[in-house]
Specification:
26% of the residues lie in helices and 31% in strands. The protein folds into two domains: 103 residues; 124 residues, no CATH class.
């Protein structure tokens, strides 16, 4: 395979990866707390002799948008949303993780958990206990939970030390390898959840652009293949 074919193939591989990311964004348009992803392309240049070099495109870096999604009113006692920066802190079998999805529920043991059963933690990393049959449960703006006028816990809102270095796990959880700190000014809203920040119209438009770019690259590779075949046939003759 010649240099032109290698270059086109690297481009096609990146476009295919971006198409998968876009399709996943569109599929999660209505997923509470979902964060839109994109693909960043980088250029890889290999120096040949003194007159030639090879430039290839690589689309391997995923970029997550942390823009605020719309807050949707549910009226649910255990539905929460964060206004501004910050993440809910939850405990998983793989360690503590961050999420913006705040549709929680009390477990059979009385702890506040995610739909997947992961305990919601306070700022100190301790599971939050919800009193059984607490019909008047209220949550203040700073995340403090109270019932019958008495505080019983506080939802932990944390800020990652380096948001760009966070790794997505599954659809809604993030691993913060660089660590995180408690938010100094948490803003929690009860009875709301944060919608996905995916813009479906822009995503569909981008999908069309990527599809056309991929088709153009495919046609180039087919023509390049025909050119090489013709050159080989002429050489054999």
């Amino acid at each position: 395979m010649e240099t032109a074919s290698y270059t086109a193939l690297s481009r096609q591989s990146g476009l295919l990866r971006e198409m998968r990311v876009i399709a996943n964004n569109i599929a999660n348009t209505n997923t509470t707390g979902f964060r839109q992803e994109g693909v960043i392309f980088s250029e890889y240049i290999t120096q040949g002799d003194t007159q030639t070099s090879v430039s290839m495109a690589r689309g391997r870096i995923r970029n997550t948008s942390f823009a605020q999604g719309n807050l949707e009113h549910t009226g649910g006692t255990y539905d929460f949303a964060i206004e501004g920066d910050g993440f809910f802190l939850v405990d998983t079998p793989d360690g503590q993780r961050l999420t913006r999805a705040g549709a929680f529920t009390p477990s059979a043991e009385g702890t506040l958990v995610t739909p997947d059963g992961h305990p919601v933690l306070d700022a100190g990393g301790t599971p939050i206990f919800v009193p059984p049959q607490a019909s008047d449960l209220m949550v203040a703006g700073d995340g403090t939970i109270s019932t019958q006028g008495r505080p019983v816990g506080q939802i932990g809102i944390v800020i990652p030390n380096d948001p760009k270095m966070m790794a997505r796990e599954g659809g809604l959880l993030f691993r913060a390898d660089e660590g995180f700190t408690p938010s100094e000014d948490p803003r929690v809203v009860q009875g709301f959840v944060e919608a996905s920040n995916v813009d479906p119209i822009l995503q569909v438009a981008r999908m069309v652009e990527v599809q056309r770019a991929y088709e153009l690259g495919q046609k180039f590779m087919e023509r390049e293949d025909e050119r090489i075949r013709s050159a080989l046939e002429a050489f054999v003759k």
